[in-house]
Write a structure and sequence with these properties.
Length: 558
């Protein structure tokens, strides 16, 4: 112990050790007892360890990198000696090893990763997650038992490298193409429960909701079998649906805001998409539509769900959403606000699958994502067995109006190089969508598998991050008092995730691209005024509520 401490001490800068001495000199302890020396050394080690780890990415154990395939930037191999020295310190959780890289400045968000996982027992949020939780659903109802999860390391620190190795070797990989084995493995790992697919008329606050009003025809869908893209729209956005489905090729749950006279064109648009367009089979197979409207803005007539599609749409007529400006909407005429978070929550709550990608309908994912994601879940690598709750954010990009949407990361990188693509909202609100390690992400080459590239936190520069991610039903809802016009509509959810100590497992080969056309900042006086009001609402009402409901955590902000 002392020798390690001394070695580490020498490694520290003069400044640090001076600072340390100055703090302790006033205690006036001339007697340099062995005990004191040990104490000092151990404090020094702790500080050194924290600084050291703080400047590095922290995921996974060293043993699993064989199957990890480089999810951890590029720097994993070098540092065996230093890592073993650090393991001697009792501060370090055993299954974690830092991956040193001296050139990086230390990011606050990475320090917190360490602080959070090292002191898991004293964290209120961590206490809420049972130790046996392995994947995703850590706040949810149906948690897997420790024994049911293959390769579960259980309580922090109980793993040993021998069992780790064995786990990876004996059941690490799904043979590509072996759908049945993949299916079986994901099913047993998730242990999720099936959800209702009934058509229901519900009330939700001031809104009527027609849940599962028009259902996808995918037949029986088990909760572990896919991921549901959940989103919200009015009918003028439905031109996005087919391009989105061509890439997603999996279930979509859409909540349509259709007050007053918007109801009929909304229903007509759904019919049009199911009957009249190329790609309509995708719509029929995968798209489930919910309709909702304010209680003060009920349409003149609302067919029962079983009658909704009885009369077909005349396919010789143009699409109901073709060339309709948003000024034509009932919503605009009545000066209603768009209740974006009501829609988001309806779509999410109706999703049949365990995993959900809550997104905006103009954001198109790269093709093949669902299968690769489930394969990643099936591999159940070390980082997926971490105890903290997690979501899987996707990097987001915009492309030129005339550009095609890139299909894979390699193509995306080419577009980024020649300026056809840029990071999302770079010209509107860079820090709202800036993803930790985005430069490194963009530089890293595409790999065959999907993995976690980096584990970040919503702190430091990313404290206002509004990530879009694959999560589960267990994640906090979106605050339904916030409107699209008032902006900041995902901020409070982001804050809740931060307070609940969520980890953001950024995926390496997954991304979203906005419908072509790069956004620029436009002056909009009404929105500016509403945004001001929203900020007040958040500051005076919602934030104090969240502090009571979820507690506080250093480094988190709205
Ligand atoms: C590895 O696991 C297998 C069963 O999956 C077991 O028979 C074997 O003894 C284990 N090996 C070690 C080194 O733990
Ligand atoms: C469909 O619309 C076209 C164009 O308006 C019209 O000529 C045709 O008669 C309509 N068909 C039916 C069955 O209403
Ligand atoms: C779209 O609508 C505008 C005005 O409503 C009209 O001037 C324009 O010709 C329409 N465009 C097409 C392609 O129909
Ligand atoms: C990334 O891919 C490019 C083109 O295939 C190649 O030239 C480059 O060496 C690769 N970089 C790394 C770090 O593997």
């Amino acid at each position: 112990m002392p020798s390690i401490g001394c070695r580490l001490k020498q490694g520290l800068t003069m400044e640090t050790s001076k600072g340390y001495n100055m703090r302790f000199e006033p205690l006036g302890q001339k007697m340099f007892t062995r005990r004191n020396w040990l104490l000092r050394c151990s404090i020094l080690i702790n500080v050194a360890v924290l600084l050291y780890i703080g400047s590095h990415v922290m995921i996974g154990g060293g043993n699993n990198f064989t199957s990890g395939g480089g999810f951890l930037l590029q720097e994993q191999q070098q540092q065996q000696p230093a890592a073993s020295a650090l393991q001697a310190s009792s501060l370090l959780p055993q299954q974690q090893q830092p991956t040193p890289k001296n050139s990086e400045a230390s990011f606050a968000e990475e320090k917190l990763v360490v602080a959070g996982s090292g002191n898991a027992n004293s964290e209120p949020a961590a206490a809420a997650a049972p130790p046996s939780a392995t994947i995703g659903d850590s706040g949810g109802g149906n948690l897997p038992e420790a024994g049911q999860v293959v390769g579960n390391i259980g309580v922090v620190g109980s793993s040993s490298s021998a069992t780790e190795l064995n786990n990876t070797q004996s059941d690490g990989y799904i043979v590509t193409g072996d759908e049945k084995e993949l299916d079986e493995r994901v099913r047993s790992l998730l242990n999720c429960y099936e959800r209702d697919y009934d058509q229901q008329t519900l009330q939700r606050g001031d809104f009527w909701v027609l849940q599962n009003y028009v259902r996808a025809e995918h037949g029986e869908l088990k909760c572990h079998e896919s991921i549901t893209y959940t989103t919200h729209a009015d009918y003028t956005f439905l031109d996005n649906l087919v391009p989105l489905l061509e890439r997603w090729n999996a279930p979509i749950s859409i909540a349509m805001h259709a007050p007053g006279t918007d109801f009929q064109p909304t229903l007509d648009s759904i019919k049009y998409l199911r009957d009249c367009v190329p790609g309509n089979q995708l719509v029929r197979s995968f798209a489930t539509f919910h309709i909702y409207f304010g209680t003060k803005h009920i349409p003149k007539s609302v067919p029962k769900a079983q009658d909704a599609l009885k009369t077909g749409y005349n396919c010789s007529l143009p699409a109901p959403y073709f060339n309709v400006s948003s000024g034509h909407l009932y919503k605009a005429q009545k000066k209603l606000l768009y209740p974006v978070n009501v829609g988001r929550n309806i779509a999410r709550d109706s999703a049949l699958t365990h995993f959900i990608l809550a997104s905006d309908i103009e954001l198109y994912p790269n093709p093949g994502l669902v299968k690769k994601f489930l394969e990643m879940i099936a591999r159940n690598e070390q980082y997926l067995r971490r105890k903290a709750p997690r979501v899987f954010p996707l990097s987001i990009f915009e492309v030129d109006e005339n550009s095609p949407v890139p299909h894979d990361k390699t193509e995306l990188q080419e577009f980024l190089r020649n300026g056809k693509a840029i990071p999302f909202h770079k010209r509107v609100c860079a820090s709202c969508h800036g993803v930790p390690k985005s430069k490194e992400w963009m530089a890293a080459n595409e790999t065959d598998e999907l993995s976690v590239f980096h584990i970040g936190k919503r702190t430091g520069y990313y404290v206002h991050w509004e990530p879009i991610y694959i999560g589960t039903h267990a994640d906090p809802h979106y605050d339904e008092r916030l409107s699209w016009e008032g902006k900041s509509d995902k901020m409070t959810q982001g804050y809740s995730l931060c307070v609940l100590d969520y980890e953001f497992h950024i995926l390496d080969n997954a991304f979203l691209v906005h419908k072509p056309g790069i956004k620029v900042l436009k002056k909009d006086n009404r929105r500016a005024m509403l945004a001001g009001k929203t900020n007040q609402l958040i500051r005076k009402i919602i934030y104090p509520e969240l502090k009571i409901m979820y507690g506080m955590r250093k480094g988190c902000a709205i």
